[in-house]
Amino acid sequence: MKCLCCKNNANAKIMQNPDVYYCNMCFHVFRDYSFIDLKKYYNERYRTSISPRKITDVKKARDMRMVNIIKPWIKKGHTLFELGSADGTLATFIKENVEMKDMFCCEIDDNLASICESKGHNVVNEDFFKIQNKEYDCFMAIDVIEHLLDLDALVEKIKELKFERIITQVP
Predict the structure, then answer these.
(1) Average pLDDT, whole number, for the chain?
(2) Residues ≥6 apart with Cβ < 8 Å to 58
(3) Which of 101, 171, 93 is nearest to 138 (CA)?
(4) How far is CA 94 from the centre of its chain?
(5) Spatial separation of the C-alpha atoms in residues 160 and 158, rounded to whole Å
(6) 3-state class of 87 per DSSP?
(7) Is residue 118's pLDDT more than 90?
(8) Rounded to the nearest 10 degrees, what angle do helices 89-97 and 57-70 cross at?
């Protein structure tokens, strides 16, 4: 399996079902998603039961810390696009605390997208790589990039959609 970051072929499988690999060159750990339909996987296997996230003090503190980190990067006239919004909890904190023009939440999991929409968010419930002709100012992906199969395709899609600012966090 070719490393998703450095494209090295000399990798070791460290876990089966799902197949997880370790890159001997750049030390990246990644899964082989190449053989599955991601939308089906995220809807049927990734999370089998989702209910709206309970807001604990720890989760609220984490989300508010994230809001404070991204707040200086978003201007009043910006439109924010969040990839992998899950149930929209972070999006709610952002909308309540960051002045911006608009926000869109992209979530491939149908159940999570529904929960996110029920919180009043603009939801894009489709594969990010299939989105066409939309212009957003800011791209945000918090704890999502490690789930993507093709990082080069992500970069190209970000360029295509003409994001002015990119905000990411990888665990």
Answers:
(1) 85
(2) none
(3) 101
(4) 15
(5) 5
(6) coil
(7) yes
(8) 50
